[in-house]
Structure formats: C-alpha cells, structure tokens
Amino acid sequence: MDRKVYFDNVATTRTDSDVLKTYKDLLDKHYCNSDALYDDAVTISNMMERSRENIAKLLNVEKEEVIFTSGASEANSLAIKGLCLRNKDKKHIISTIYEHSSAYNALRQLEDDFGYDVTYLMPGKDGKIDPEEVRKNLRPDTILVSIMLVNNEIGAVNDIDEIKKIVKKHSGTYFHSDITQGLGKIDIDLKDVDMASFSAHKIHGLKGSGVLIRKKHVELLPLINGGQQEYGIRGGTANALVDIVLAKTLRMALERQKESYRHIEELNAYFREQIKEVKGVSINLDNGIANLINISTPIESEVLLNALNAKGIMVSSKSTCGSKKNEPNRALKALGIDDDHAIRVSFDYENTKEEIDHFISCLKEDIDKYARV
Ligand code: PMP
After folding, report:
1. Considering only CA atoms, which residue is closest to atom 5 of ligand 1?
2. Which of 60, 150, 210, 372 is 20 to 30 Å from 101 at the Cα level?
3. How far apart are CA 59 and CA 100, in angstroms?
C-alpha cells in the first residue's frame, strides 16, 4: 500500500514548503534570545516585531494587539482564564457546548475551581448558535461571551458578526471567538471582537505556533509568568523564529483563500454527489464550512477508521484532541448524532476529486465487508 490520501486537514495541515524553507534558513543563522541587547539579538527581535506588525495589518488590528502563543489551545486558555481571573467581580460566562476542548475545559475549570457560572448554549438543527440565545442569556454579571467561529467537528459556521453586535451593546461584557477553523477559509472581521484565537498549523504553518488577538482595552491575568515578553501577558523566551514565519504563513493563507476555497467547494459538492452511491451513509450537516464533512456510516467509527487507515486513507472520528481519551463528541451529541458511527472528512486545496473517488471506493469495500446493511 503506497498510496496515501490525507483527508484530516481540520486536525492539521501539511507545512507549506516555503514556510519550512524560511524557517530552516532562519534556524541555520539565528539562535540568540530575542530579548538580549547585542546586535544579533536585536536583529531577531526586529524581525519578530515586523512579523507582529504584518500579522496585525493582515487582520486589521494593531500591532500591540497581537500576542504570540504556542497555539490556539494556549490562546483560548489565556483569553478565557486570563480575562475572567483578572476581572473577578463578574462571574457569569456564556459559551457553547461544542467549543474546542481547550476552551471548554478552561470554562469547566473556572466553574469547578473558581466558582464561575457558565451557560453552555446548544446549537440548533443547523448546527449554529442562535444569536438570540446569546441576547437572552446575557446578565448584568456576564463578563465574557466566548463562541467559536467554525466548529471543528461538524463544520457549523456561527454568525459572529451578529453575536458581537449583541455583546457590544451590553457594556462590561467581552467577546472572544476561537477563529482557528475559519481563518484562511472565510472572511473574518475582527472589529468589535475583543479577543480571537488561532493556530498556525491549521493554515499550513508550524506546530506550536499561534496568536491571541487581544484588543488594547482588554486586561488579562498572565497564565505564564515571566518578564516583559508579549507585553507582560505571556512570559518565556520568545519562540522568535516560529513567530517570525507566522506572518508569512498567514499572508500566504489569506492570499490563496479565495481560490483555494473555491476548489474546496467543488470538492465538497463532488463528495456529496458521490457519497449518495454508498449504502447506509448519510451526511450530518448541510451548509457548514466546505472543507469539513461529517458523515454517519453503518460501521463503528473506530473499525472504519482502522480499515481506511490500512488502505492509506487518513480521516478522523472524534476530534483529534479527544481521540485517545474516549470523550464523547459534544458537537455530535448536541445534534443528536450517534458519535460512535460518525467520521470527519476534511479537505484542503491540495486534495483532488480523484482522491475522493478512491475514498468512496474504499468506503464501499469496507461497508460491504464490515456492515450489516
Ligand atoms: N480550536 C479549534 C477550533 C481547533 O480545531 C483546534 C485544533 N484541534 C484548537 C483550538 C487547538 O489548536 P492548537 O493545536 O494550536 O492548540
């Protein structure tokens, strides 16, 4: 079996070769601590600040609002816990049942260990959070509304433009969004979004690299204590070279966004057409983000995953972060979908219709072999 088909682009993407080359070139030349005062260190620090500035320009925010982190998990933790623990006079939070585990478990921690009260909104049949539900649940003591842009299990796209308008009218409440799965796919307007998290490795960048956009008026309690790094909000010697290549990663993702998303939409339509031919398989959501399709099959997902893996096809069942813990899939459960029979197929601009044909033919074989339909 030589052939590999990678349909797990929501879990991570292949590192772009240009990004990798830039990173390797930098690694060859630079090793100084970016906070040191000699010339070689200042060179790195200047490159890092240029990267921060470029990221800010690309996202229409200010340079000081870009906080480098180790990824979206850290950015989510910092946004949620950092904000709430800095502003302890209000202890109510509105979020959703299907946030990524990094956000969800930060919320659970605030409830269990710090006495916060969290309202977890449920998605409607369309997989989305109804902005009206946000309005209804706001209270005088609501400190934070944290709602993801695109759900990483089911692909629902939330109307964060509408949600942020509602939150903005409610003074003293902040709005955070995990934009990890929407960035580089759909347009995002960060005006009136107080904080936003994302990760480089979902847009063909390096692992261990991400950003929290934190608007200037938002005060956060640092979770990693240290010195002056990241405006005193996130301590530790900067992962400067990784931070430097993030600007390039983001620029390339945004430059190719339109064209690559058009291609992904074609793949999505083709997949939906072809899957109709497969007995006992249904698609779990229409009108989600085009690069993610969640399907239910007659085979237990773990069995199917292994069977496909044996044929070189990589897809996932539970979100990769919960895949080894056997945690229930909160997104699927909320929609009444049996998470033991669902798999997530996720495309990228590099995938082809021919790969979909191969996937469909392997899926048919496996269903014939393992399922009783
Ligand atoms: N948020 C979402 C929506 C994600 O899909 C992921 C990645 N699984 C994360 C956060 C965590 O990102 P990272 O791997 O950079 O910590």
Report:
1. 152
2. 60
3. 22
Instruction: Please choose from 105, 202, 239, 317 the residue to mutate so as to test ligand 1's pocket, defined by most ligand atoms within 8 A of CB.
Output: 202
What residues flank ligand 1, with Cβ below 6 Å? 71-73, 76, 100, 102, 148, 152, 178, 180-181, 199, 210, 320-321
Q: pLDDT tens digits for 138-162?
A: 999 999 999 999 999 999 999 999 9
Domains of the chain, each with CATH number or no CATH: 5-15+257-370 (3.90.1150.10), 17-255 (3.40.640.10)
Paired tokens of 263: 């291609």
The residue behind tokens 């690309």 is: 58
- The CA 63 to ligand 1 mean position distance, Å, reads 23
Residue 280 CA to residue 50 CA, distance in Å, equals 53
Question: Which two tokens mark 120?
Answer: 């977890």
Q: What ranges in the chain are assigned the alpha helix state H?
A: 17-29, 39-59, 72-77, 83-86, 101-114, 131-137, 160-169, 240-275, 301-310, 330-334, 353-370
Q: Among the atoms of ligand 1, which is closest to the Cα of residue 76?
A: 10
Nearest-CA neighbor of 51 among 203, 202, 246, 251? 246
Tens-place pLDDT, residues 46-96: 999 999 999 999 999 999 999 999 999 999 999 999 999 999 999 999 999
Burial class (CB in 10 A: 0-12, 13-18, 19+), 96: buried
Minimal-distance CA residue to ligand 1 atom 16:
73
In one-letter notation, the amino acid at residue 69 is T
Catalytic residues: 321
CA of 178 to the centre of ligand 1 (A): 9
CA–centroid distance, 322 to ligand 1, in Å, is 11
The CA 320 to ligand 1 mean position distance, Å, reads 9
Ligand 1, residue 10: give the atom nearest the CA.
Answer: 5
